[in-house]
Amino acid sequence: MRKWICLLLACLLLPLPVRGADPELSVIAPAEPLIPWETALIRYTLPEAGTVQLTLTDGEGREIMPVARDVQGVAGKNTLFWNGTWERESAPAGVWRLRLDAGDAHAETEIVIAGEAPAVAARPAESLEPLRLSFTPATTSPWNGRDASLNYWTLPMDIHEEERIWQVLTAPITVINIGKNSTEKTQVTIRKEPSADSEGVGVVTCETQGVHVLERGEEWSLIECYSSSFHDSKILNWNVLVQGYIPTKYLKEEIPNQEMGMVIDKLTQRLYLFREGRLYSTLLVSTGLSNKRQPYNETRSGEFLLTSKVGDFKSDNLTCAKAIRFNDGDLLHEVPYVLAADGVSRIYDTCEPKLGTKASHGCIRVQRKKTPEGVNMYWIWDSLKKNSKTRLLIWEDWQGRQIEIPAEDTPLYWSAREGTYYHSAEQCSGVKEGLVLARFPYGELETGAYAKLKPCPYCAPVLRRAEIEEINAKYAFGGDHDPVLTEARKSCPRPLK
After folding, report:
1. Domain extents in the chain
2. What is the pTM of this model?
3. CATH architecture of the domain with range 4-127
4. Of the candidates 200, 263, 265, 429, which lies 20 to 30 Å from 159 by C-alpha distance?
5. What is the pLDDT of residues 433-473, one digit of tens each?
6. How far apart are the C-alpha atoms of 473 and 173, rounded to whole Å?
7. Residues near 68 by beta carbon (within 8 Å), at least 6 away in sequence
């Protein structure tokens, strides 16, 4: 009987489809010996989409242990995590074969299983908790694990890692500079091979988008980034993590703002503002929501520099205030409003209730209501100088990522007198002056009068357990939180017609 832990630990991540000639069936084992209960990435390639089985076998082809069963793969490159166990049993140490079966065809490769770590071996199997995987922006990259330095691509997507996040926010960033002025809306094609005649696999935006340099050559360098494909980009590949070549002469190192930086987490739909080495404030945001006709609405992940202050702009009947450019047509701006009939009053009812969920056309909408620290989009605008080069990290919401459920004793606050909201802080900008908030633990949020409270739109408190579990179920391993975007990616990368 397969248990849910097996789905957690041996499961398909978002596939990386490819175009061109049909790829050959193949499987690649982890380069280093796999230690049971420690995750490793297995990569495999399919000539066509289908169901696959992965099995650990001996040299004679006899089964040692299942690795994954009935996994759906796409044509091209696929990845899955395995932690060297099946139904809480560890794989035996030794040099074995990793076999991939897809229909009547199969491929195999050597895999080395090391002995269990002493701390794990000393514990009874029933006491072992499901593994909490550490995701990075480069989780599905073929180069994942080869870079030992700390940077955006190797940084775990965990907001509690404040010290390391600040190191990344203030470290030099490599961007694309083609030697011309005002190229923030110019894109360079990422080539499959180091040649100007090679097909494109994606695009990168000049001046503002950071790239991960994998191999630096004299004329061409191998880089990776999320393709910043918009509807009119030369290469269409919707927010896919790609590896390819660009001219080495285009690579330029920039020093970002050393006083402030930001993290956008597409999973939590929060903006985490860092200031002078620590997490300073948390704000609600809405990143892009793709649809069948507009898959390019998905906000492109990656690392960027906030540069031009665009100001207010119109989007249909909406006005987006205090916009700052960070990736071609993607801007950071205040949650949009509609002008009332008097031509003066602003109505935020259309977009503001959606903060904390995906809702935009690709830009990042930021709350206008002040956090307990006094931060909102106006504060951000006023705090940044023109072309401040403030670093913005956008974390991908990989399938398999989960929102941590707060501890039962996490403090929350409310007022019986006001009786509408629960808060994350004892002092909140949304509370009337003189109103005292009382503390209560997160574990009691579903009881008594607390059960009817709504999360405060000013101080962005944690979600209720049921809401977190609903999101986590959507992002659980083996699922697909955005099937529309997955389907749209099947025809990518392709040139703009």
Report:
1. 4-127, 411-474
2. 0.79
3. Sandwich (2.60)
4. 429
5. 889 999 999 999 999 999 999 999 999 999 999 999 999 99
6. 35
7. 10, 11, 52, 53, 54, 80, 82
